[in-house]
Amino acid sequence: MKYIISFPALAIVIAAYLLMVSGGDMMIDGDAYSMTLASGAEMTLRGGDFFVIAGLIALFLEMLKAARPGRAAVLDHILSVITFVVALVAFLLVDYAGTATFFILTLMTLIDVIAGFAISLFAARRDLAIGSDR
Asked: Which of 103, 115, 24 is nearest to 77 (CA)?
């Protein structure tokens, strides 16, 4: 069960974006939701904005997972790196992935990789400091 938890949430967002956009029917730049704020301003969310919102939620979940100790963290890091590489290759080579929305999602996968390693290093340094005799 813990290996299922290791699956990157950002990979699901990336896969959903690629699957929905590859069909050609989804309008990433089309208006999806609009509302008038109390100030009178009109706020409009586009289709791609929902992927960015989902990516931010997934990135938050990934940060929570990176903070947990154990061997599953290694698998987490490996899968996060794979997700980043797949997203980067898709951004560079797939025509419908060459959008600003997908670029932001790719940056989120990079942040996930860097933050995951940084959190693990800080935790390891703390564990070494606690275990030292000084």
From this structure: 115
Confirm if 52 and 103 have CB atoms less than 8 A apart: no
Q: Which two tokens stand for residue 29?
A: 């730049």
pTM to 2 decimal places: 0.83
Which residues, 6+ apart, have CB-to-CB distance to 98 below 8 Å? 91, 92
Spatial CB neighbours of 81, under 8 Å, sequence gap ≥ 6: 113
pLDDT at 54: 95
Q: Give strand ranges (E) for 14-132.
A: 31-36, 42-46
Q: What is the C-alpha separation between 58 and 76, in angstroms, rounded?
A: 14
Q: Summarize pLDDT for 27-86 with one digit per residue, the tens.
A: 777 788 899 999 999 999 988 899 999 999 999 999 888 877 777 778 888 999 999 999
Half-sphere exposure of 61 (CA within 13 A, CB side): 17
Q: Judge contact between 17 and 101, C-beta under 8 A.
A: yes
Q: Do 100 and 8 meet the contact criterion of CB atoms below 8 Å apart?
A: no
